[in-house]
Amino acid sequence: MSGEDAPAQQQNAEEQKNQETKKPAEEPKAETKPDSPPASAATEAAAAPAAAEKAPEEEAFTYRSLVLTGYGGYDKVKLQVKKGKPALKAGEVMVRVKMCGLNFADLMARQGLYDRLPSPPVTPGMECSGIIEAVGEEVTDRKVGDKVLALSRCGMWQEVVVVPTTHTFIMPEGMSFEEAAALPVNYITAYMMLFDFGHLRPNQSVLVHMAAGGVGIAATQMCRTVKDVTVFGTASASKHEVITEGGVTHAIDYRTKDYVEEVRKISPKGLDIVLDPLGGSDTHKGYNLLKPMGKLISYGAANMLSGQKKNLIAVAKTWYHQFSVHSLSLIQGNRSVCGFHLGYLDTETELIAQAMDSILGLYRQGKVKPRIDSTFHLEQVGDAMRKMQERNNIGKIVLTTEPMKEEEKKEEAKKDDKKDDKKKDDKKKDDKKKEEGKKEEKKKEEGKKEEKKEEKKEEKKEEKKEEKKEEKKEEKKEEKKEEAKKAEN
Amino acid sequence: MSGEDAPAQQQNAEEQKNQETKKPAEEPKAETKPDSPPASAATEAAAAPAAAEKAPEEEAFTYRSLVLTGYGGYDKVKLQVKKGKPALKAGEVMVRVKMCGLNFADLMARQGLYDRLPSPPVTPGMECSGIIEAVGEEVTDRKVGDKVLALSRCGMWQEVVVVPTTHTFIMPEGMSFEEAAALPVNYITAYMMLFDFGHLRPNQSVLVHMAAGGVGIAATQMCRTVKDVTVFGTASASKHEVITEGGVTHAIDYRTKDYVEEVRKISPKGLDIVLDPLGGSDTHKGYNLLKPMGKLISYGAANMLSGQKKNLIAVAKTWYHQFSVHSLSLIQGNRSVCGFHLGYLDTETELIAQAMDSILGLYRQGKVKPRIDSTFHLEQVGDAMRKMQERNNIGKIVLTTEPMKEEEKKEEAKKDDKKDDKKKDDKKKDDKKKEEGKKEEKKKEEGKKEEKKEEKKEEKKEEKKEEKKEEKKEEKKEEKKEEAKKAEN
Fold first, then answer.
1. Mean pLDDT highest for which of A166-180, B58-72, B417-431?
2. Min Cα separation A102/chain B (Å)
3. Could you tell me the pLDDT band of residue A415, with boundaries at 50, 70 and 90?
4. Tens digit of pLDDT for each residue in A357-400?
5. Alpha carbon of A433: minimum distance to chain B alpha carbons (Å)
6. Which residue of A352, B12, B174, B373 has the lowest C-beta tally within 10 Å?
7. What b-and-e string marks burial along B444-475, b requiring 16 or more CB atoms within 10 Å of the CB?
8. Touching check for B326 and chain A: CB below 8 Å?
9. Considering CB atoms only, which of B293, B340, B480 is closest to A196?
10. What is the DSSP string of B151-168?
11. Which pLDDT value is given to residue A23?
């Protein structure tokens, strides 16, 4: 489903919040009028609670929410109406959301490739901006009306979110809600990678993959805050002008050129820092591009994403080529290999707060500024995800909670035929990919018949690893026993 | 052989320099008088070249040099007399050496476990201090008489060394030759690990293994230059007072306690930085002690050293438990794994110079100061190595090129009986270790009979890896061919 179909498929997701009431999941569906714009309904409910006299305030409180209903294609994210005012615990705030940011992890999550998102049904989204609507007990640093940007493990793609106050940050003067929603994940990621793991210094060189993407642009801007840093940025040719203006020193079209060769031509000794969002064989390439004292920072596996549904060949290939390194190899190369993912840092509020403080400082000085590629309505989340996955964006894609206007809807309706074509296109694309996959398979089968052997080898290796782990555990236990004995003697 | 026997075994090592002369290796031996102190001979030669009228100056120039004659025990490092003035190329300087530093890499090298030392016969030693005696063409930043500390991949354990001027650094005012010889390797290692890879900041926590060793003491002092850094230091109990005075916050006796448990008691969340000179299973332990955004920095495999000769069991065990990590594991843990060894950085003169500049700055401010454990004559190099290997030192062990005085020699001679006992002890120790090794082997054989299976598995795995590498290479070639075809089209 592409986003514009969403309202027609609204479901009341109250059961997620109040499962103990044991209402059948279907029942509340009938309560929402498919033809009335749900956001205005929510607004009415908030503005005129008297209208819902018989129901308690919590019952009358509704808000629109994007919900991942199962793993799969773009249509698995549906726009639903949630009912009931979320309860506020001590230290929490409720935010009326204006904008939400889209991240690669959201695309991975939809395909079931991101283990930090709880099982569906669940609301995705790691960041948003909005206005504080209520504060819980013990909250002293935020008040109703504060404009904030917020960060969370998930659940940000909806009109109302409840988060610990420590996960919110006051928006600087002059920052738009789009910018505020675009900033947290990309800029914290770029900042911590370059300045904590990377320890970027003047005159160094950095490789930024997907330089026109959210993290890519954030990383390029961060590099520019340090003197004489050379940025190699990969992107398709059509984006080179923009990324070069944005600070990339050498733009490389990865579709037509071997980026390793291009880098070596300019920097024969290699690079100080490689930021790697791709995984698989690109991690190996990045490692081999490092200078002595160089740092490879791996922060994703975008190579796993191919097509809108989970592509097992792409996943297996990325997994199979997954980078692994021995400490002796690191010692002999004087190299560092780091892994970063903000999704696994959600409890590190102090680290996050420190990074955000520095980033907002850079924003105030005009040194960094999120570049917005486009804004989509919640109803259009499918289109938004498609654009990101097909790498047609330059900068950040954000979702706005503002409901679509009637005329916009009509226009969208007119495009329906085209959309149908698009769907057909999608199917064609997917079929083509499947076909290509099959062809590739066939070619491999015919050409070498090695693939399966390798897989079997891998399996065997995995089995052996497991065995070895068990054995190691045994050994450790024995060691401990021996040590315990020694301690007794 | 322990060091004091060295003079009796002096060999002329001229053949190393002038192999083309094709003198039999045994012949020059006779030229040196075993009963005359060789250093004074060298001094005579330098002071009174007129005495050697018939020989050209180059021929009359002799100097004492420690030479690794083959891999093995302490007696493999022999004191020899080299003949012939080394030639100076452009950009090089000749240093009359005062003191040389001992490093773990030297011990590894003697056992054949360090691939950065050329094959024997070769002079070991990575650092020294002394006075510039001659400068080559194009040298403008050094002059005869300058007091310098010098750094090189090897060859520093002798009275005269020739190095590129970029490998020398002017000694700060007030620095002793002992300190200057003790500083380069340990302090550059500690500095680059903590401040480049580690990016140490206030309030962080660091684990320093072998905290009473050369790098351990340097790292502790470096940590103290940053506000409120908590240092966990492992050392045997007898050294705790000294390392605590030196800046270790929590001293842990690794011989009687599990350091992982001790760290967790005080710092349940783990550590920001782990410096790991041990390798093997300790690298795994260090990795598991890391906080999010934590860095493990591996810089050696001291666990491979057990006994004075290569202990195959210790080597195999360390190798078998060698740490390897996948990028996805790093991503999920937000961790960094780094490898450092100065021996592989010898061509990075700029990086080294930057680090040395900062370190000498800290020395001038009184913030760092090498702690000298003891000074040995070149003749005593065996004793010096033994002390380091048996971890009986607190701080740096240095060698002085000053010849032993006659009375010292007599005293040493008196100790000879004791020395013989020591030798017997050595043999006993080695035998005991062998015995223990055998017992361990037997126990394992009897208990599980798994060890060999594992080894076989390892072998198979290695074979498979090799196969896979080959296959990958094939794949890469094919990929490139395909890409080349694409580029043509």
1. A166-180
2. 20
3. low
4. 999 999 999 999 999 999 999 999 999 999 999 999 999 999 99
5. 18
6. B174
7. eeeeeeebeebeebeeebeebeeebeebeeee
8. yes
9. B293
10. E-SS--SBSEEEEEGGGE
11. 35
Closest CA to A168 of A351, A356, A367: A356
User: Residue A439 corresponds to which tokens in the numbers above?
Assistant: 């062809």
Collect all residues with Cβ–Cβ distance below 8 Å to B327 and sequence separation of at least 6.
A276, A279, A283, A298, A322, A323, A324, A337, A339
Query: CA dihedral in degrees (A378, A381, A383, A387; nearest 10)?
Result: 120
Cβ partners under 8 Å of residue B134, min gap 6: B88, B93, B94, B144
Residue A429 confidence (pLDDT) = 56
Predicted confidence band of residue B407 (pLDDT cuts 50, 70, 90): confident
Considering chain B, what is the average pLDDT of its residues?
81
pLDDT score for A396? 97
Query: CA-to-CA distance for B264 and B268, rounded, in angstroms?
Result: 4
Structure tokens at A471: 């054995």
B240-259 residues touching A, CB cutoff 8 A? 256, 258
Query: Is a pLDDT exceeding 90 seen at residue B95?
Result: yes
Task: Inform me whether the C-beta atom of residue B119 falls under 8 Å from chain A C-beta atoms.
Answer: no
Full DSSP string of A252-311: E-TTTS-HHHHHHHH-TT-EEEEEESS-THHHHHHHHTEEEEEEEEE---GGG--SSS--
> Model-level pTM?
0.77
Which residues neighbour B111 within 8 Å (Cβ) at sequence distance 6 or greater?
Answer: B71, B72, B305, B309, B310
Q: Which of residues 296-315 of A touch B (CB under 8 A)?
A: 298-301
Task: Give contacts of A324 with chain B, Cβ < 8 Å.
Answer: 324-327
Cβ of A344 under 8 Å from any chain B Cβ?
yes
Upper half-sphere CA count for residue B408 (Cβ side, 13 Å): 10
Q: Is B41 at the interface with chain A, CB within 8 A?
A: no
Mean pLDDT across B221-246 = 97
- CA-nearest residue of chain B to A273? B197
- Residue range A275-333, pLDDT digits in tens: 999 998 999 999 999 999 999 999 988 877 777 777 777 777 777 778 888 888 999 99
- Is the CB of residue A444 less than 8 Å away from at least one CB of chain B? no
Interface test with B, best of A328, A340, A479 (most B CBs within 10 A): A328
A489 touches chain B (CB under 8 A): no
**Residues B350, B341: Cα–Cα separation, whole Å:** 16
- Cα–Cα distance, A80 to A63 (Å, whole number): 8
In terms of C-beta density within 10 A (0-12 exposed, 13-18 middle, 19 or more buried), how is residue B81 classed? buried
What ipTM was assigned to the predicted interfaces of this complex?
0.75
Query: Does residue B293 sit at the A interface (CB-CB below 8 Å)?
Result: yes
Q: Which helix (H) or strand (E) holds A162?
A: strand A160-164
Model confidence at B49: pLDDT above 50: no
pLDDT digits (tens, 9 = 90+) for B18-41: 333 333 333 333 333 333 333 333
* Cβ distance of B327 and A322 shorter than 8 Å: yes
Residue listed under structure tokens 């099959």: A438
Q: Please give the residue of chain A at the shortest CA–CA distance from B332.
A: A344
Which residues in chain B have Cβ-Cβ distances shorter than 8 Å to A327? 276, 279, 283, 298, 322-324, 337, 339
B456 and chain A in contact, CB less than 8 A:
no
Q: Determine which helix (DSSP H) or strand (DSSP E) holds B294, and give its type and residue range.
A: strand B290-298
Contact (Cβ atoms closer than 8 angstroms) between residue A117 and residue A68:
yes
Minimum-distance CB partner of A322 among B197, B328, B340: B328
**How does DSSP assign B25-40, residue by residue?**
TTGGGGGS-TTS-HHH
Beta bridge partners of B218: none
Grade residue A5 by pLDDT with cuts at 50, 70 and 90.
Answer: very low
Query: Which of B293, B322, B348 is nearest residue A327 as measured by Cβ atoms?
Result: B322
Q: Is A411 on the interface with B (CB under 8 A)?
A: no
Contact A468/B at CB under 8 A: yes
